[in-house]
What we know:
- By secondary structure, the protein is mainly beta.
- It has helices at residues 3-7, 233-241, and strands at 12-14, 23-27, 43-49, 52-63, 72-77, 84-92, 95-97, 100-102, 107-118, 125-136, 139-144, 148-154, 164-166, 169-171, 228-229, 244-246, 254-258, 264-268, 272-273, 280-281, 286-294, 299-306, 309-310, 314-317, 327-328.
- Strands 1-2-4-9-6 form a five-stranded mixed beta sheet, with no helix packed on it. Strands 3, 5, 10, 11 and 12 form a five-stranded mixed beta sheet that branches.
- The radius of gyration is 23 Å and the shape is elongated.
- The protein starts with a helix and ends with a strand.
Amino acid sequence: xxxxxxxxxxxxxxxxxxxxxxxxxxxxxxxxxxxxxxxxxxxxxxxxxxxxxxxxxxxxxxxxxxxxxxxxxxxxxxxxxxxxxxxxxxxxxxxxxxxxxxxxxxxxxxxxxxxxxxxxxxxxxxxxxxxxxxxxxxxxxxxxxxxxxxxxxxxxxxxxxxxxxxxxxxxxxxxxxxxxxxxxxxxxxxxxxxxxxxxxxxxxxxxxxxxxxxxxxxxxxxxxxxxxxxxxxxxxxxxxxxxxxxxxxxxxxxxxxxxxxxxxxxxxxxxxxxxxxxxxxxxxxxxxxxxxxxxxxxxxxxxxxxxxxxxxxxxxxxxxxxxxxxxxxxx
Length: 331
Protein backbone atom coordinates (compact mmCIF):
# COMPACT_ATOMS: atom_id res chain seq x y z
CA UNK A 1 0.00 0.00 0.00
CA UNK A 2 1.36 3.43 -0.90
CA UNK A 3 2.11 5.96 1.81
CA UNK A 4 -0.56 8.28 0.41
CA UNK A 5 -3.15 5.61 1.12
CA UNK A 6 -1.77 4.78 4.53
CA UNK A 7 -1.67 8.49 5.38
CA UNK A 8 -5.45 8.45 5.41
CA UNK A 9 -5.36 5.92 8.25
CA UNK A 10 -3.35 8.15 10.56
CA UNK A 11 -5.27 10.51 12.80
CA UNK A 12 -3.84 14.04 13.05
CA UNK A 13 -3.45 14.86 16.72
CA UNK A 14 -3.53 18.56 17.51
CA UNK A 15 -2.46 19.55 21.01
CA UNK A 16 -3.38 23.10 21.96
CA UNK A 17 -1.36 24.46 24.93
CA UNK A 18 -3.46 25.51 27.87
CA UNK A 19 -6.39 23.26 27.08
CA UNK A 20 -7.38 20.59 29.56
CA UNK A 21 -8.38 18.17 26.84
CA UNK A 22 -6.72 16.87 23.69
CA UNK A 23 -8.39 17.71 20.39
CA UNK A 24 -8.44 14.94 17.82
CA UNK A 25 -9.42 16.19 14.35
CA UNK A 26 -9.84 14.66 10.93
CA UNK A 27 -11.04 16.20 7.71
CA UNK A 28 -13.22 14.91 4.92
CA UNK A 29 -13.84 16.24 1.46
CA UNK A 30 -17.01 16.53 -0.56
CA UNK A 31 -15.88 16.00 -4.15
CA UNK A 32 -18.56 18.37 -5.40
CA UNK A 33 -16.89 21.42 -3.92
CA UNK A 34 -13.45 22.85 -3.61
CA UNK A 35 -12.76 22.86 0.12
CA UNK A 36 -9.10 21.86 -0.13
CA UNK A 37 -9.46 19.18 2.52
CA UNK A 38 -7.90 15.71 2.13
CA UNK A 39 -9.84 12.81 0.70
CA UNK A 40 -12.07 10.88 3.16
CA UNK A 41 -9.85 9.15 5.69
CA UNK A 42 -9.73 5.48 6.52
CA UNK A 43 -9.40 3.86 9.92
CA UNK A 44 -7.65 5.63 12.74
CA UNK A 45 -6.31 3.90 15.83
CA UNK A 46 -5.72 5.81 19.05
CA UNK A 47 -4.81 4.87 22.56
CA UNK A 48 -6.61 6.86 25.25
CA UNK A 49 -5.83 6.86 28.95
CA UNK A 50 -8.47 6.02 31.53
CA UNK A 51 -9.85 8.68 33.87
CA UNK A 52 -9.37 11.31 31.20
CA UNK A 53 -11.76 13.20 28.95
CA UNK A 54 -11.01 13.85 25.30
CA UNK A 55 -12.59 16.10 22.70
CA UNK A 56 -12.95 14.48 19.29
CA UNK A 57 -13.59 16.72 16.32
CA UNK A 58 -14.34 16.29 12.66
CA UNK A 59 -14.87 18.77 9.86
CA UNK A 60 -17.12 17.96 6.95
CA UNK A 61 -19.09 19.75 4.25
CA UNK A 62 -22.60 19.03 3.02
CA UNK A 63 -24.72 20.53 0.28
CA UNK A 64 -27.82 21.66 2.10
CA UNK A 65 -30.91 23.66 1.13
CA UNK A 66 -30.04 27.04 2.53
CA UNK A 67 -32.65 28.12 5.04
CA UNK A 68 -34.50 24.79 4.86
CA UNK A 69 -33.75 23.89 8.43
CA UNK A 70 -30.85 23.36 10.75
CA UNK A 71 -28.90 20.14 10.10
CA UNK A 72 -28.74 17.72 13.02
CA UNK A 73 -25.45 16.06 13.97
CA UNK A 74 -24.91 13.34 16.54
CA UNK A 75 -22.15 11.01 17.73
CA UNK A 76 -22.37 7.31 18.53
CA UNK A 77 -20.08 4.95 20.44
CA UNK A 78 -20.15 1.26 19.52
CA UNK A 79 -18.99 0.36 23.02
CA UNK A 80 -20.08 2.89 25.67
CA UNK A 81 -18.51 0.73 28.38
CA UNK A 82 -15.11 1.62 26.94
CA UNK A 83 -15.66 5.14 25.64
CA UNK A 84 -18.80 6.96 26.77
CA UNK A 85 -19.82 10.12 24.90
CA UNK A 86 -20.62 12.77 27.48
CA UNK A 87 -21.60 15.62 25.18
CA UNK A 88 -21.48 16.65 21.55
CA UNK A 89 -21.95 19.85 19.61
CA UNK A 90 -21.96 21.03 16.01
CA UNK A 91 -21.59 24.46 14.54
CA UNK A 92 -21.57 25.92 11.06
CA UNK A 93 -18.25 27.30 9.98
CA UNK A 94 -17.91 30.82 8.66
CA UNK A 95 -14.95 32.03 6.64
CA UNK A 96 -13.36 35.44 7.21
CA UNK A 97 -11.62 37.15 4.35
CA UNK A 98 -10.30 40.67 4.81
CA UNK A 99 -12.36 40.98 8.01
CA UNK A 100 -15.56 40.16 6.09
CA UNK A 101 -17.67 37.09 6.90
CA UNK A 102 -18.84 35.08 3.91
CA UNK A 103 -21.55 32.40 4.11
CA UNK A 104 -21.76 29.83 1.31
CA UNK A 105 -25.44 29.45 0.43
CA UNK A 106 -25.11 25.93 -1.01
CA UNK A 107 -22.42 24.24 1.02
CA UNK A 108 -22.14 24.37 4.80
CA UNK A 109 -19.06 23.29 6.66
CA UNK A 110 -19.56 21.81 10.11
CA UNK A 111 -17.12 21.42 12.94
CA UNK A 112 -18.44 18.50 15.01
CA UNK A 113 -17.02 17.73 18.44
CA UNK A 114 -17.69 15.05 21.02
CA UNK A 115 -16.43 14.84 24.59
CA UNK A 116 -15.52 11.26 25.49
CA UNK A 117 -14.75 9.72 28.85
CA UNK A 118 -12.70 6.54 29.37
CA UNK A 119 -13.34 5.04 32.80
CA UNK A 120 -10.99 3.22 35.14
CA UNK A 121 -10.54 -0.47 34.41
CA UNK A 122 -11.91 -0.27 30.89
CA UNK A 123 -10.10 -1.98 28.07
CA UNK A 124 -10.88 -3.05 24.55
CA UNK A 125 -12.01 -0.87 21.68
CA UNK A 126 -14.87 1.42 20.72
CA UNK A 127 -15.70 2.93 17.36
CA UNK A 128 -16.87 6.55 17.38
CA UNK A 129 -18.84 7.77 14.38
CA UNK A 130 -20.55 11.06 13.59
CA UNK A 131 -23.79 11.29 11.59
CA UNK A 132 -25.21 14.42 9.99
CA UNK A 133 -28.86 14.76 8.94
CA UNK A 134 -29.80 17.63 6.63
CA UNK A 135 -32.16 18.75 3.88
CA UNK A 136 -31.28 18.57 0.20
CA UNK A 137 -33.70 19.29 -2.65
CA UNK A 138 -36.54 19.06 -0.17
CA UNK A 139 -35.52 15.61 1.02
CA UNK A 140 -34.12 14.67 4.40
CA UNK A 141 -30.66 13.09 4.05
CA UNK A 142 -28.75 11.19 6.73
CA UNK A 143 -25.05 10.52 6.21
CA UNK A 144 -22.33 9.08 8.40
CA UNK A 145 -19.06 10.94 8.29
CA UNK A 146 -16.53 8.92 6.23
CA UNK A 147 -14.00 7.08 8.36
CA UNK A 148 -14.17 5.96 11.94
CA UNK A 149 -12.12 6.09 15.10
CA UNK A 150 -10.93 3.03 16.96
CA UNK A 151 -10.30 3.81 20.61
CA UNK A 152 -7.99 1.51 22.54
CA UNK A 153 -8.19 2.27 26.24
CA UNK A 154 -5.26 1.74 28.59
CA UNK A 155 -4.49 2.81 32.12
CA UNK A 156 -0.86 3.92 31.95
CA UNK A 157 0.05 0.65 33.68
CA UNK A 158 3.83 0.59 33.53
CA UNK A 159 4.09 -3.19 33.17
CA UNK A 160 0.94 -4.12 31.21
CA UNK A 161 0.34 -3.56 27.50
CA UNK A 162 -2.31 -5.14 25.27
CA UNK A 163 0.03 -5.03 22.28
CA UNK A 164 -0.64 -5.03 18.54
CA UNK A 165 -0.03 -7.96 16.18
CA UNK A 166 1.99 -7.13 13.07
CA UNK A 167 2.96 -9.91 10.67
CA UNK A 168 2.33 -12.51 13.35
CA UNK A 169 4.38 -10.78 16.07
CA UNK A 170 2.75 -8.96 19.01
CA UNK A 171 4.46 -5.62 19.63
CA UNK A 172 4.10 -3.44 22.70
CA UNK A 173 2.53 -0.05 21.97
CA UNK A 174 5.04 1.86 24.14
CA UNK A 175 8.80 2.08 24.53
CA UNK A 176 10.74 0.76 27.51
CA UNK A 177 11.16 3.38 30.21
CA UNK A 178 13.06 2.37 33.34
CA UNK A 179 14.06 -1.27 33.27
CA UNK A 180 10.98 -3.49 33.58
CA UNK A 181 8.46 -0.75 32.72
CA UNK A 182 6.78 0.95 29.77
CA UNK A 183 6.37 4.67 29.14
CA UNK A 184 3.02 6.28 29.94
CA UNK A 185 2.15 7.15 26.33
CA UNK A 186 3.11 5.77 22.91
CA UNK A 187 4.78 9.04 21.92
CA UNK A 188 6.99 9.17 25.02
CA UNK A 189 10.61 8.40 24.03
CA UNK A 190 11.48 6.28 27.04
CA UNK A 191 15.09 5.69 28.09
CA UNK A 192 18.19 4.57 26.22
CA UNK A 193 20.05 1.30 26.61
CA UNK A 194 23.40 0.03 25.47
CA UNK A 195 23.13 -3.37 23.86
CA UNK A 196 22.97 -6.29 26.30
CA UNK A 197 22.52 -4.05 29.35
CA UNK A 198 19.28 -3.67 31.33
CA UNK A 199 20.53 -0.52 33.08
CA UNK A 200 19.14 2.60 31.40
CA UNK A 201 21.78 5.03 30.21
CA UNK A 202 21.63 8.79 30.60
CA UNK A 203 24.95 9.38 28.87
CA UNK A 204 27.09 9.26 31.98
CA UNK A 205 29.74 6.61 32.74
CA UNK A 206 29.68 5.21 29.21
CA UNK A 207 31.59 2.03 28.43
CA UNK A 208 33.32 2.64 25.09
CA UNK A 209 33.10 0.34 23.28
CA UNK A 210 30.51 -1.81 25.00
CA UNK A 211 31.91 -5.28 25.58
CA UNK A 212 29.79 -8.41 25.77
CA UNK A 213 30.79 -11.98 25.03
CA UNK A 214 27.23 -13.07 24.17
CA UNK A 215 25.66 -12.84 20.71
CA UNK A 216 22.11 -12.84 22.14
CA UNK A 217 20.62 -10.42 24.65
CA UNK A 218 20.32 -12.69 27.69
CA UNK A 219 17.05 -12.71 29.66
CA UNK A 220 18.61 -11.51 32.94
CA UNK A 221 19.79 -8.38 31.11
CA UNK A 222 16.58 -7.77 29.15
CA UNK A 223 14.99 -4.43 30.19
CA UNK A 224 11.47 -5.35 28.99
CA UNK A 225 8.67 -5.92 31.53
CA UNK A 226 7.76 -9.49 32.46
CA UNK A 227 6.16 -11.34 29.56
CA UNK A 228 7.99 -9.20 27.01
CA UNK A 229 11.48 -9.27 25.47
CA UNK A 230 13.76 -7.42 23.08
CA UNK A 231 12.84 -8.46 19.49
CA UNK A 232 14.94 -10.79 17.36
CA UNK A 233 16.69 -9.42 14.28
CA UNK A 234 14.16 -11.17 12.03
CA UNK A 235 11.25 -9.64 13.96
CA UNK A 236 12.61 -6.14 13.41
CA UNK A 237 13.04 -6.94 9.72
CA UNK A 238 9.41 -8.08 9.61
CA UNK A 239 8.28 -4.84 11.25
CA UNK A 240 10.24 -2.82 8.69
CA UNK A 241 8.32 -4.59 5.89
CA UNK A 242 4.91 -3.68 7.36
CA UNK A 243 2.89 -0.75 6.04
CA UNK A 244 4.37 2.38 7.56
CA UNK A 245 4.43 6.15 7.33
CA UNK A 246 6.38 8.99 8.94
CA UNK A 247 3.70 11.00 10.73
CA UNK A 248 3.68 12.86 14.08
CA UNK A 249 1.65 11.79 17.09
CA UNK A 250 0.77 14.56 19.54
CA UNK A 251 3.48 16.69 17.98
CA UNK A 252 6.15 13.98 18.33
CA UNK A 253 7.79 12.76 15.12
CA UNK A 254 8.03 9.06 14.41
CA UNK A 255 6.83 6.11 12.36
CA UNK A 256 3.42 4.45 12.39
CA UNK A 257 3.28 0.73 11.56
CA UNK A 258 0.04 -0.99 10.56
CA UNK A 259 -0.86 -4.37 12.00
CA UNK A 260 -3.70 -6.83 11.70
CA UNK A 261 -7.21 -5.32 11.43
CA UNK A 262 -5.65 -1.93 10.72
CA UNK A 263 -4.39 -1.58 14.29
CA UNK A 264 -1.38 0.69 14.71
CA UNK A 265 1.76 1.19 16.75
CA UNK A 266 3.86 4.34 16.89
CA UNK A 267 7.64 4.40 17.31
CA UNK A 268 8.88 7.86 18.30
CA UNK A 269 12.02 9.33 16.80
CA UNK A 270 13.79 9.54 20.15
CA UNK A 271 17.30 10.07 18.77
CA UNK A 272 20.26 8.19 20.25
CA UNK A 273 23.24 8.54 22.55
CA UNK A 274 26.62 8.26 20.88
CA UNK A 275 29.09 5.58 21.98
CA UNK A 276 31.93 8.02 21.39
CA UNK A 277 30.89 11.06 23.43
CA UNK A 278 27.61 9.98 25.15
CA UNK A 279 25.73 13.03 23.83
CA UNK A 280 22.13 12.86 22.66
CA UNK A 281 21.78 13.29 18.89
CA UNK A 282 18.92 13.78 16.39
CA UNK A 283 16.02 13.63 18.87
CA UNK A 284 12.84 14.25 16.88
CA UNK A 285 14.41 13.44 13.51
CA UNK A 286 15.83 9.93 13.92
CA UNK A 287 15.09 6.73 15.85
CA UNK A 288 16.98 3.50 16.45
CA UNK A 289 15.69 0.35 18.15
CA UNK A 290 17.79 -2.60 19.34
CA UNK A 291 17.30 -6.22 18.37
CA UNK A 292 18.50 -8.99 20.69
CA UNK A 293 21.15 -10.14 18.18
CA UNK A 294 24.82 -9.16 18.19
CA UNK A 295 27.25 -9.68 15.34
CA UNK A 296 30.34 -9.49 17.52
CA UNK A 297 31.42 -8.25 20.92
CA UNK A 298 31.37 -4.71 19.55
CA UNK A 299 28.38 -4.61 17.17
CA UNK A 300 24.69 -5.54 17.28
CA UNK A 301 21.69 -5.24 14.95
CA UNK A 302 19.05 -2.53 15.20
CA UNK A 303 16.30 -0.84 13.20
CA UNK A 304 16.92 2.79 12.29
CA UNK A 305 14.67 5.36 10.62
CA UNK A 306 14.29 9.02 9.82
CA UNK A 307 11.90 11.24 7.90
CA UNK A 308 13.37 10.04 4.61
CA UNK A 309 12.64 6.37 5.27
CA UNK A 310 13.39 3.21 7.20
CA UNK A 311 16.93 1.85 7.10
CA UNK A 312 17.71 -1.86 6.74
CA UNK A 313 18.28 -3.71 10.01
CA UNK A 314 22.04 -3.43 10.25
CA UNK A 315 24.99 -3.44 12.64
CA UNK A 316 25.84 -0.59 14.99
CA UNK A 317 28.38 -0.24 17.76
CA UNK A 318 26.91 -1.94 20.81
CA UNK A 319 27.97 0.99 22.97
CA UNK A 320 25.31 3.25 21.45
CA UNK A 321 22.34 4.16 23.60
CA UNK A 322 19.26 3.18 21.58
CA UNK A 323 15.54 2.88 22.29
CA UNK A 324 13.87 -0.45 23.06
CA UNK A 325 10.47 -1.67 21.85
CA UNK A 326 9.42 -5.08 23.18
CA UNK A 327 7.64 -8.06 21.63
CA UNK A 328 5.52 -10.57 23.51
CA UNK A 329 7.52 -13.44 24.93
CA UNK A 330 6.27 -16.80 23.62
CA UNK A 331 5.09 -19.30 26.18
